[in-house]
């Protein structure tokens, strides 16, 4: 594909989670030729059920949610490709020179780039229950599941201690498992723990018991204890997928997230970041909102009209031959799409004729 301005695509989205796919949804529906390059996997793909997404029921898995989203953006005219982006390189010194996005096998020249690679949660050593069946990484998503149930939190740092105390809002049975490691939380946190009914279990886990449905029932410990749990949260940090972030030398926050403005613009003009790669709550609705903001911002940067007074002076008036500015490929897809106003008129006429 070649856009009207000579690039392969207007926008390349690196990553195919909720944030990246929402960015692509907006850029495509706002008339920009868009490619999504997705390595697969990710946090959302691990979800057995979807929580906290209004209008989406618990029975929808993360993979089903993502598959529907991929089909949506492709239906609007975006291209989706499985692959690992290895490099993003500026094509010049000016933002309008664009970027080259390379997968090792293919490369694409684009006007704007959206980074949506997210991060990977660090897993503790086994024995562990299956993810989503007693092993959970998102308190905001899953605390509701454990109301009035026995819960564990694994870890030795301040984050683990705080999550254990937070879970007391939902249940009176919370254990903090250090798994034989020395606690690393601060003295202040230790004092807080002493004043909350959280049991700190220092023994290492040696075994695990699951029910017939695959859910965790209990852990066995090297001191002979067997303690029942419905599930819990490992708190061992996460690793950003940040090779491209480093190569572009993007500004980062103190905790390693990519620094962005309210539209997702990074410290490098023309490069946006959305979702778990950026500061804020790691939630699907939040990621979708960030993706939408970035998509709209990119549309405003790249849309041809209205021409400014300076552009009119340099290029002249907009003529009938100049409009519309949407590419012929996207225009054809939009006209044929079931949501097109013309298609709706045709359906109404057909219904009236019947």
From TrEMBL:
It comes from the Archaea. PANTHER family: THIOREDOXIN REDUCTASE 1-RELATED-RELATED. Residues 315-354 are annotated as: Disordered. Pfam families: Pyr_redox_2. This is FAD-dependent pyridine nucleotide-disulfide oxidoreductase. The keyword Flavoprotein applies. Residues 9-291 form the FAD/NAD(P)-binding domain. Keywords: Flavoprotein, Oxidoreductase. InterPro entries: FAD/NAD-bd_sf, FAD/NAD-binding_dom, Ferredoxin-NADP_redctase_2. Residues 335-354 have a biased composition (Basic and acidic residues). GO terms for molecular function: oxidoreductase activity.
